[in-house]
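sry for the spam today, last one i promise. C-alpha cells for design, 288 residues
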C-alpha cells in the first residue's frame, strides 16, 4: 500500500491524451466520444504516476458525468486528473478538461469521470458457479455479432468485440468477447475491450426488454482479479439487477476458461440521448 503523508492529501496531474486512430471508432450521434473504459485508464495512469505503489485493481463508485467529445483531426487532448486521498484507504480521482470562453479570459473546468481506487483487500466475488454462467433461462434469442454492430451498437471495427452470437433472455445476456487490439493500454487495468463489450451486451438487453438505448453512466464496484489481454478470448455474462423507466442496473462477470478475470457490480445504464436514438422494432418483437 502506498504511504501517504496525511489525511486529505491532494495531487493534480496534467497530460495530453494521445488520440490514436482506433478511438475514432467510438462514436455517438456523429461525434467521437472518449470511451468510459479509456477514461478509467487515464485515471489509473495518473494515480500510478503520483503514487506508484497504490492499488488500482479495486475500483468503486465510478461515475461518467459528462461525455468527453474528441474534435475532428485532434491528435492530442489536454486533460487533468485531480486526486485526493481521504484517509480511509480511498483515493478519489476525477478526469477534467478546461473550457475557455470565447474571449479566452474565463476558464471553467468540466468533470467527465470520477472513480475511487480502494487500498483495502480485494473481496471475494459471490459469482454464480462457472457452469451456470454458460446457461440462460427463459426464452432466449441469438443475435449475431454482425447484427449487434450494424443495428444496435453501431461502433467501428475497433469496438466490435462481441464474438459470434450474443445470447439474450430476460435473465441476462451471454457472449464470447475479444480482448481487442490496437494501441490501447493493457498494462494498468488490462485490455479495455472485454469490459467495453460487456456493456454492449447490456445495451442490447436494454433495447430488447426496456425499449431503451442505454449507455453506461457509472458502476458500483469493479474488481480486476486477472488482467484481460489483447488478442485473447473471454466469456462475458451480464445479469439485470434493477430496471426502471430512467435507468437499468446490471452485474457482470468476465471469465477466461474457468478463471474469473473481472467482476463488475452495479453497472448503471441510462438513455443519454433522451430518446433521440430508439431501438429497432425487430429487437423488441416477441420478447415475452
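last one done:
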Amino acid at each position: 500500500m502506498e504511504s501517504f503523508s496525511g489525511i486529505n492529501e491532494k495531487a493534480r496531474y496534467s497530460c495530453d491524451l494521445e488520440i490514436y486512430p482506433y478511438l475514432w471508432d467510438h462514436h455517438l450521434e456523429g461525434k467521437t466520444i472518449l470511451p468510459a473504459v479509456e477514461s478509467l485508464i487515464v485515471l489509473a495512469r495518473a494515480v500510478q504516476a503520483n503514487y506508484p505503489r497504490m492499488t488500482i485493481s479495486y475500483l468503486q463508485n465510478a461515475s461518467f458525468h459528462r461525455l468527453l467529445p474528441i474534435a475532428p483531426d485532434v491528435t492530442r487532448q489536454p486533460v487533468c486528473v485531480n486526486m485526493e486521498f481521504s484517509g480511509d484507504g480511498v483515493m478519489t480521482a476525477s478526469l477534467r478538461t478546461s473550457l475557455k470562453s470565447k474571449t479566452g479570459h474565463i476558464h471553467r473546468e468540466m468533470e467527465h469521470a470520477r472513480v475511487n481506487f480502494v487500498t483495502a483487500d480485494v473481496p471475494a466475488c459471490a459469482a454464480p458457479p462457472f457452469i451456470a454462467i454458460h446457461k440462460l433461462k427463459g426464452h432466449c434469442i441469438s443475435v449475431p455479432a454482425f447484427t449487434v454492430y450494424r443495428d444496435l451498437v453501431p461502433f467501428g471495427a475497433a469496438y466490435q468485440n462481441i464474438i459470434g452470437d450474443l445470447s439474450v433472455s430476460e435473465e441476462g445476456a451471454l457472449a464470447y468477447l475479444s480482448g481487442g487490439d490496437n494501441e490501447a493500454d493493457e498494462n494498468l487495468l488490462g485490455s479495455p475491450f472485454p469490459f467495453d463489450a460487456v456493456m454492449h451486451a447490456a445495451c442490447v438487453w436494454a433495447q430488447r426488454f426496456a425499449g431503451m438505448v442505454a449507455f453506461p453512466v457509472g458502476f458500483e464496484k469493479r474488481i480486476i482479479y486477472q488482467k484481460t489481454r489483447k488478442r485473447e478470448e473471454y466469456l462475458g455474462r451480464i445479469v439485470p439487477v434493477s430496471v426502471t423507466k430512467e435507468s437499468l442496473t446490471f452485474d457482470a462477470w468476465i471469465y477466461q476458461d474457468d478463471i474469473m478475470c473481472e467482476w463488475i457490480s452495479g453497472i448503471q445504464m441510462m438513455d443519454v440521448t433522451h430518446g433521440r436514438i430508439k431501438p429497432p422494432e425487430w429487437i423488441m418483437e416477441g420478447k415475452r
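The helical segments are 36-50, 130-133, 145-152, 193-209, 281-284. ok im logging off now
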